[in-house]
Amino acid sequence: MSGLSQIEAERRLEVYGRNEITEEKRRSRLLIFLSQFKSFLIVILIIAAVVSAVVTEEVTDAIIILLIVLFSGVLGYIQEMRAEGAIQALKRMASPKAVVVRDGKEIEIDSTFVVPGDLLLLDTGSKVAADMRLIRAVDLKLDESPLTGESEPVSKVAGDTVFMGTTVLHGRGEGIVTATGMKTEFGKIAGALQAIDDEETPLQHEIDRLGKWLGVLTIIVCAVVASVGLLRGAPPVEIFVLGIALAVAAVPEALPAVITIALALGLRRMASRNALVRRLLSVETLGSTSVICTDKTGTLTEGEMTVRKIYLKGRMIEVTGVGYTPEGEILLYEDEKLNHDLELLLMAGSLCNNAHLRKEEDGWKIVGDSTEGALLVLAEKGGFTKDLLDEKCERIDEIPFSSERKMMTTVNRCENGVYAFSKGACEVILSCCRLSESEKEEVLKNAASMAGDALRVLAFSYKSVKVDDSNLESDMVFLGLVGMIDPPREGVKKAIARCREAGIKTLMITGDNPITATAIAREIGMQDKGEIVTGAMLDLMGEDELERIAEDVTVYARVSPFHKLKVIDALKARGHIVAMTGDGVNDAPALKKADIGISMGITGTDVAKEASDIILMDDNFSSIVAAVEEGRTIFRNIRNFFTYGLSCHIGEILLVLFAFLFFEDLVSVKGFPLPAVQILWINLLTDGIPPIALSTERPGYNIMREPPRRKEEGIFTRRVLFYGIVIGLLVAIQGSFIFHLADPEKAQTMVFTTIVISEMFNVFNWRSDKESIFKLGFLTNKPLILAVSSTILLQLIVIYLPFLQGAFHTVGLDPGDWVLMILVGLSTLVVVEWMKFVEKTRLTHT
């Protein structure tokens, strides 16, 4: 066939468009930047800063608040842009080059210029550039796992359809292009993917809720302070100024910035542990995940067929090693060397084989069928290299494998004669061999045993032949059986055990057959008593029935992409936060539909990466556990910072209210315990560097021994409120105590400094919400030590520098004053340590 003319091809290109996947319309950079400031909390901060600057004339304070807001926005913008830049979109999934026939000549073109009607040529190793109908196929096998999830190669014959994005593993073919771009099956999945809306993460909901709650609190604080102050006869202007200061203090303006910084620091730690985060807030969602739905091939397994067992002369021989790296042993008895029969079996596996094993910079690769590749690796383990064997035993004829014959035979001229080597299905090879019925039964029994372990079984035979022998595949000598499997990844069993310990359920959702899926699930400790459901069974289930059994199912086998969506919907309906891992195009809709999508960085398609929130750069399921640990740590650090800040702000507010309610006479002599400028300064000190240092706290020992956070549980809980009120009340009492004792000229300075000291002790309390600081160690978080030291230094500056004393209403303090303030402030650490001890003791005995 001469194919299309170049002129006709160009005309069709104008009609049908380029052969590429169109991407979702992306937000402009300006909109991405502005979206960083849409939170209600951010709006309150900006208003508070402006009002504070106008009313209190504290322009520096307002500028610092606005800089924090700007810093938060810029950091979020940079992170989003960096993530988008790291992930190239769907276009790169298509084959970059394609071989077509134009004007009767074979030419190589950019795959984007392939058009419907083109005559497209396929060869081993090529990626299919468009959907096409085969008009000729020679022993053609394709890897359709990116579309179907099925790990086994698919044989194709003339008349079959071949799909864009699949890969030719073996043979040759040619066909007419029937669809390009978004009209292909690949494109339809990409289109369905774009139709799924992004959902906000729990943390996004929580930040918005806290912003609104704190906005209301700000108004209440202003109203209460103003009302009480005016009833007590305080000057209205001073009351208004103080109320504004307390309102600013009531809003923890560092919260958005510290949340962003905590997420960014966690992202950096995750990247060092081979997990790349595309969306910043997804880190937190992963930490609260209660179910992980994972694909099998290439995710839980190596994605590389590996020989596990050899049956030879009545013996079952184990083979070590994983994947295509030719490292491992054929485990014979210590005093036994490779015997003649085993040598022949290894030679048969290598010679009756069209694959090639290559060593590349990033490891060993197979060109061709993965099953044949596993046989080459086995031969290498036994000391036989295919290139050397091919030189010594030249192939002079071949009877190719077909789905009808279920066997393959090659004729090789070796140094000592001409031999026919065959491999294929056990029953077929046995029918060609000289064996008694009892011998055949023994072989079949062992083949069944290997198949029961989910091994794919191949049989081998050979015989000496003449060059013109017309009866090659009869009266052969049986050599043995080889059992292979796509083995679990190293460390995946331990990772799943850690998930179980952390209260996270792992499910396998695969396109593979139930026997293989169940065997892998049992081997890695995933499947015990859980049910196994197939795609056919899912088709018969209604939504209610699936929701009822969803939590009891461990393995879903022979499923389609739409089945995956159905399972995720059922789990989410049961209140779970669902993570989905995958690498193929077929996984993309489920990756986007799940609360958190995790794709594979090495074997994953670009469509899967584009749909995901997190990419595992090493394709290692174990990295998911590291990501979960970091996600939990990030949320814990955010909550701890919030509790710390809440207690600080409550303490300041209560202290001012106590002064109005109980210390009216002292106020008339000593002034307000905390003037407005001191409240703002404390707010800047305590909400500045220390909280950021808290966000650097590393994962605790027990963080992966706790159950997942409930979906409805946010940052602000009853426990957080309890600790915030108790510690805030303690801070107010400390300030009131110092206010009573201090000399009138020192009272404001000593209360001011005592609050700062108390809150610096308090920041150590919230390195962990449960563990004692004495167990963690005071010096193990170096950024926090630096933050506290810097805060104390800044406090000393406003106390002792003469030109700042007037602005901050401070005076110099004596050593005795410092001893008293430190002892009073230390009580914050002691009281919280006691509360943690009581809580831990109570939980131990319940």
Automatic annotation (TrEMBL):
Cellular location of this protein?
Membrane
Name the InterPro entries on file.
ATPase_P-typ_cation-transptr_C, ATPase_P-typ_cation-transptr_N, ATPase_P-typ_cyto_dom_N, ATPase_P-typ_P_site, ATPase_P-typ_TM_dom_sf, ATPase_P-typ_transduc_dom_A_sf, ATPase_P-type_domA, HAD-like_sf
Q: Which NCBIfam families match?
A: ATPase_P-type (TIGR01494)
Q: Which residues form the Cation-transporting P-type ATPase N-terminal domain?
A: 2-57
Q: Write the record's keywords in alphabetical order, separated by commas.
A: ATP-binding, Hydrolase, Membrane, Nucleotide-binding, Translocase, Transmembrane, Transmembrane helix
Query: Source species, please?
Result: Candidatus Syntropharchaeum caldarium
Q: What is its EC number?
A: 3.6.3.-
Question: What are its GO cellular component terms?
Answer: membrane
| Membrane-crossing segments per the record | 30-56, 62-78, 213-233, 239-265, 641-663, 675-695, 720-741, 747-764, 784-803, 818-835
Tell me the PANTHER family matching this sequence: CALCIUM-TRANSPORTING ATPASE
Q: Report how it sits in the membrane.
A: Multi-pass membrane protein
Q: Which GO terms describe its molecular function?
A: ATP binding; ATP hydrolysis activity
Its recorded name reads: ATPase
